Amino acid sequence: MVTNVAIACQGGGSHTAFTAGALRELLPSLEASSEHRLVGLSGTSGGALSALAAWYGLEREGAAHARRLLRQAWLDLSAGNPVDWFANEALVATARLTNGGAAVPEVSPYYTPAALWGQQRIERVLESLVDFDRLHALAEDDGVPELHIGTVDVNGGEFETFGADTVTPKVMLASMALPEMFHAVELDGDDHGHAHWDGLFSQNPPIHELMEVPSGRKPDELWVLQINPQERESVPTALTDIADRRNELSGNLSMNQELRFIEQVNSWVEKGHLPDDQFSHTTVHRIGIGRQFGLSSKLDRSPRFVRQLLELGEERAGEFLADHEALDAET
Questions:
Q1: Boundaries of each PNPLA domain copy (predicted)?
Q2: 8 A C-beta contact, residue 110 and residue 183
Q3: Which of 116, 131, 165, 324 could connect to 139 by a Cys-Cys bridge, CB 3.0–4.6 Å?
């Protein structure tokens, strides 16, 4: 019997290079497995970038191509030249001071050209990685995995997700549009003319959509690539530590709510309260980053840090695969 697997990629700035590393390790094993089948990918913010690169690479040429795209995406966005490196160091240092309570002047992204330059750069990287016309054509094939990219409608206050057939560079920019750094993105075809922000403010990552599929494609297992630590041993007392933990808790809020709903459905299924031809048990596994990084490092695009996170993702995913059969459900 084949086990259906869906992978949900949490967002979290540069830390989501960890997600790309984890996917680089997970995808070849899934592709080679006769007992597991990938039925869905979802992501928000940087997790959306990783989910897109993984989905497109897999459907275009297979896991080897997806591995290349995942690494290329994050290295292309890293601070690779002296000017970009200096700007990155200044941004991280400023964020560290702000989180520590220092009075640092702040400028709206609408009053500085750097915001538009940054979004234009992200768009160029996206278009160098993905042929979006080809992406839409691939989405029409029967049996391809689901792809869901999360954003939030700024004006309407509603969560909004986009499937593979509707993902565009603008959708990706919207999912990655951190309000303090980038302009909100108006999406083509939005009848209301509403702007969209980073999906971190909505579903981080989208999970509900991965479950709303025909019964034969429902995930038997959901693998969550979790950027924000679920637990901390000590109570933070320094301002920087408090800022770190607040960010982690807020980043996990929507995800934990959706996972609790899966747990509730599992309970109803086990008790026979739901028809088994429409609902089934879904085992949830979390693959966590496993280390504490400061909040300011979510803005760090230094090549050294990006490579460190890619390697950490591969390491943690490798540990998960090695012990997969022994893992218990974590819901």
A1: 7-211
A2: yes
A3: 165
Closest CA to 166 of 136, 205, 140: 136
- What is the rounded CA–CA span in Å between residue 44 and residue 8? 9
Q: What mean pLDDT do residues 155-176 have?
A: 90
Give me 153's structure tokens. Answer: 């409608």
Contact 38, 28 (CB under 8 A): no
Please choose, from the candidates 31, 41, 4, 50, the residue with its C-alpha nearest in 3D space to the C-alpha of residue 163. Answer: 41
Say which residue the tokens 């990287």 belong to: 125
Residue 43 corresponds to which tokens in the numbers above? 């992501």
What predicted TM-score, i.e. pTM, was given to this entire model? 0.89
* Pair 107, 132: CB distance under 8 Å: no
Beta-sheet pairing, 146-153 with 159-163: antiparallel
